[in-house]
Amino acid sequence: MPTTTMLDQATAVIENAWGQPIEALEVLGVRRPSEEPLLRCAMHTRAALAITDSAVTVHQDRLHALSRRGYVPDFYELDRITETAVKLRVAHAESRAYLQAIRRVVEAREAAAPEVAAPAVRLAQAAVARSGQTRHAPGAVPEPPSPAAVVGPSAPTTGPRR
C-alpha cells in the first residue's frame, strides 16, 4: 500500500484551490504569470518540494539498504547510517515547510477573493443581514421610524441657583 507523499498532498491542495489538474496549472503559471501570481508562487514552491521529495526517497532507500534485516553493517558504515538518517530528517523538515508554504499561499488566495472562495458564507451573511429587517404585511405601510432622542444639557426649569 503506497503512502501519500508530501508532493502528492501539495498537488492535491493546489488542484483543489484552482480547480484544475496540475498539468494545466503548470502551463497556466508559465504562460500568464502576471494574471495569477499566487499560482506561480505555489507552482515554484511545489517544484522545490519535488526536489526535496526526491531527496527523501533517496535517503529512505539508502537507510533501508544500510539497515535491512539480517545485514550487519561494517564499522565504517555506522557513520553513513547516522549521516543518512540526519539527511532524511532534514529533507522531511524541508518538505513539511514547503507544504506549509503552499497551504499559506492557498489561504492568501482565498482571503484575497472571498466572494469566489466561499459562496455559502456570503449567503449566510446575507441571510443574517435580512433577518434584522422586520417583515410587513403585503399592502401595509411600514411605520415611520421614531425620532431620535436629543442628547445635551437640560434647560433649567427654574431660575439660576445661588
What can you tell me about this protein's structure?
This protein is mainly alpha-helical and 162 residues long. It has 6 helices and no strands. Helix content is 67%, strand content 0%. α1 packs antiparallel against α3, α1 packs parallel to α4 and α3 (37-66) packs antiparallel against α4 (75-112). The longest helix is centred in the middle third of the chain and has 38 residues, at 75-112. The protein is elongated. The relative contact order is 0.10.
Describe the SSE topology.
Blueprint: H1 6-18, H2 22-31, H3 37-66, H4 75-112, H5 114-117, H6 119-131
Helix pairs in contact: 1-3, 1-4, 2-3, 3-4
- The rounded distance between the terminal residues' Cα atoms is 96 Å
DSSP helical segment count? 6
**Main sheet specs:** none
Strand content: under 5%
| Silhouette | elongated
Q: List segments where confidence is low: pLDDT < 50 over at least 5 consecutive residues.
A: none
Mean pLDDT: 80
| Beta-strand segment tally | 0
Structural class comes to mainly alpha
Helix content: 55-70%
Helix and strand run: HHHHHH
Question: What is the C-alpha radius of gyration, as a whole number of Å?
Answer: 32 Å
